[in-house]
Each structure stands twice: as structure tokens, then as C-alpha cells.
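Researcher: Last one for today. Full complex below.
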Amino acid sequence: MSSAAEGATRADVCAAAIADAFKDDGEIFASPMGMLPMLGVRLAKLTSNPDLVISDGESLFLADVPPLFAKGDVVEGWIPFRKVFDVVAYGKRHVMMGATQVDRHGNQNISAIGDFARPTRQLLGSRGAPGNTVNNRTSYWVPKHSPRVFVESVDIVSGVGPARAKAAGPAAARYHDIHRIVSNLGVFDVKGTDDTVRLLSVHPGVSVDEVREATGFDLHVPDDVPETRLPTTEELIIIREVLDPRALRHREVPEPTSKETP
Amino acid sequence: MSKGPRDKRMSIDEVVGELRDGMTIGIGGWGPRRKPMALVRAILRSELTDLTIVSWGGADVGLLLRAGKVRRLVYAFVSLDSVPLEPHFQRARQAGTIPEVVELDEGMFQTGLRAAAQRLPFLPMRAGLGSDVLVNNPWITTVTSPYDDPDGQREELVAVPALRLDVALVHLNRADKHGNATYLGPDPYFDDLFCMAADRAFVSVEQVVDTAGLTVDTPVQRLLLSRMMVTGVVETPHGAHFTTCTPDYERDEKFQKAYAAAAADDEAWAAFEERFLSGDEAAYQAAVQQFQEEQA
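Model: Here's the assembly. Have a good evening.
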């Protein structure tokens, strides 16, 4: 049995928190978008949930768990884009997407900033966010928690939050399941008062006030907010020696300086 | 004596000669992957204008926007992958220069093509419900199931409208002269759907081979297009450049980087156009070869 490890970095804590978001998913397609989500999903597959189905992000299901950005040795299936949409509708999938904005009601925006007709900053477009959020479990990863990301109201709703899903009727709400939002400061869900974003834990070294200040809306904060768990020794070895020996995770989540963590 | 099926081989310019102002054109591939770029470049050289472009967008969309060819753009995303935001698309959106914009969910886009391919006016789907895709496209409506679900409720779903195309342009690895065609890379994308959603479909390929050659060392399941789905076949070696055409070649990342950098600045873009886009396809390929030698 492994114990909580010494010397875990903030990025390591985030990876373990993301892994925890996938631990109870059973045998589903885990679809991480971005580096830390990929690290967290692969960590979960090597520890808490070996049944997870993972891909190379292109078109292959991987039987083994390669390091970040490495090719897998054994392929266990074919998942071209057309079949991804089939799995989305089938529902056996948990996607962790990025979010340029997330609002109090758990709506997400990756489309554009500003007015849709003439945005001040055009982003990717809605991609698969509308379909993901009404079909399969969806989580979000925010590497830099700030009031610019966590806004009162997103400019364009790409990913649908629970209140909007309910308002759109049973076809939208039936399979709607925003599971976790993980940021560099803490872990959240959308089960606060009136389906709002709720703080579940703060990462070690982060205060609840710091999270409040970095959030541009009134966050649901329970009376007792635990600390996000530290990775175990086993997890740290897997992260450092197997999945991310080049420490790419620290580029996405640098260690906070003492000034940032009063 | 058997005559056999028609020979559908055409030149790039003959394909573009079949296009008209105001047409709705679907472009196959996906983002920066296996795009019919030689055909797109030919549209850039033409006088065509006022086009509706339906695409999982990459540089195809970027180039056509920059050249002012697009009246209406139907997309779910526009990306170059390694350069996340397509610079011409971003610029056009922020300047408000695309007269009509239809942003869909990726799955809705596929469903819209499916509806057109099946000659249906719409297909029902969950994707889009509750999102701003429906707010920003108020002409897209919902449809209520005529059947009760187990709770006695009737689901109200998005009625994804058919994305009917006048013309589809796709690029594959191999075809015979009749239009049977294979993809040899990891993903067919949606090129069969594009062809079936269109009145006429033109396929460019790396190489035209004998019909027997299509399956001589390639599984029959890779035959994505049947000749009944194809109007014309064009041989365009490196015709997907600078997007991927696995396994014939991968994305030209250095070229894509130069493209994206040039897009940021009017003068740099004029120089890029002059060097790469001012001549025919042969001139383009020659200029690219010289670029690659300089970069090596």
C-alpha cells in the first residue's frame, strides 16, 4: 500500500485529481483534451481504473499506456472521428475538455470571446462541446484559474451547464452529467445551490480565499473544504518515471511561487 | 464487346470549370488533414465568388476567406492542429467580413451531411440542445418524438437540417479512372458522406491506378468511394499539401508555420501569395519544393 508522497508538485496534485475524476467510470472511452488531462487519464488507467479505454487522440484505441506523446505498442481498436460521434451518442464516454470560459452555472465556452456576430477574439468554434455535454459525462480542465476564465456568464455557450440542460427539456437533461472541473487551484463540481459551481477541495498550499479571489462569480463554498489529496508514492513514480519523464506537466502548471501562495 | 464504365479523368481546371458563383461546396478532409488543397488553390485562381463553404475547416477555409470567395461559411471548428487557431479565419471573424456564419456542433455537422446523403430534410439529434448553437442559428429548430419514452414523456430533439451540397471536393490516396477510390491513412474522415450529400462529387487523388491495383495490396474495406458517388477524378500528386495525406506524406509543418506567420501581416501575405499562389498547381509544387530545399 502506498502512502502520500513527499515532494509532490502542484502539477502532480492536478494529475492525481484528474485521475480521480475517471476512477469510477468503469469501461468507457476516456477522452482527454490537452496534456494534463491526458496524464491524469493514463494515471487512472495504471492505478484506479484499468478498464478505461484510451486512444492516441487520432484514430487508434491503445491496449497499453504509453508515456505522453509516445506511440503505443499494441492497438486494441479503431476509433476514427466518425466512430467517436457514435460513441458520444452511445454515451460510454467521459471527455475532459478545456474551457476558455466557465460560468457560475457550469456553462463552458471554447467558441469565441465577445459577441458571436463579431467576436473580439475568435477561438476554435464550438467543436463537439454541445453534443458532449448532453450525451456523455463531461469534465473541464483549467490550468490557470482566474476571473477571466471563471466568469459570471460565458459569452457563448458551447458546453451546456445543468440549468440550461434542464431548461431545454428531458432530451437534453437525461444524459447530462458535468462531473468535475479541475483547475490549478482546486477541484469543483456543479452541484452548488441552483446548479452552480461548488468548491470540492483546494490543492495543498491554496486557501479558500485565494480560490474565491481568482473566481469571477459567487462560488458555492461549503462550510468544510478539504484539501485535495496528495498523490501516492506509486502515483508519483508512475508520473515521474513512466508517463512524463520529461516533466512537460510543469510547463502547463508551474510550481507556484511563495508570493502566490500566502 | 463490353465498353466498361466511363473514364472520368479530368484536369484541375476542368473541375473548377464545372463550378459556378453562389454554389454550395462541401470540402472533405478534417481540419489540416487530407484536404483537397490543389482544388482549393484552383478556386483561388478562378473568378468564382459568393460561395457557401461547408467544411470541418482548416487552411482550405482560411485561404478561401482570405481571397474573399465566401459568402456563407458552415463549420464546427477551423483549426490547423499544431497552430490551434486558423489565422485567416480568426481575422475574418474578428473583422466581421464573413457575411453569413453557421457554427454547428461537430456531430450535428455529420448528421447534417447524413440527412443530405439520405435525401431527408433533417435528422433528429441530441447535440445542440441547450447550447448557443441553437441561439445563434435560430432557423434550426427542434422536433418532438411521436413516441413516448419509458417515463411517458416525448423527447424534443434538434432537427438537424440536411447539409445539401451542389458539389463535394475530396482528396484520397488512390482511385481508378472510374471513381472507385481508397484512403490509405488511419481515418476515412467523412469524404463518402460529402460525396453522397452532393449533386456532383470530384475526387482528387495522389495517383490514378488500374481498378485491380486498388485492392492488390490494400484491404477492400479501404474502398471508401464507389464510382456511383463520383463525377470526376483528378490526379494531383501532393494535392493535399500542406495538410496530411498519410501514408503518402505527413503535414508539412514548416510550410504551415510559414503560412500562418505570413497570414498575420498584409505585406508578408502578399509576398507569400506572390511566391506560392500566383501560378498554377505545377508552379505551386515547384515553389514548395524550393522552400523545402531551403529548409532542409
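Chain A touches chain B through 46 residues (CB under 8 Å). The domain at 10-252 of chain A is CATH 3.40.1080.10 (Glutaconate Coenzyme A-transferase).
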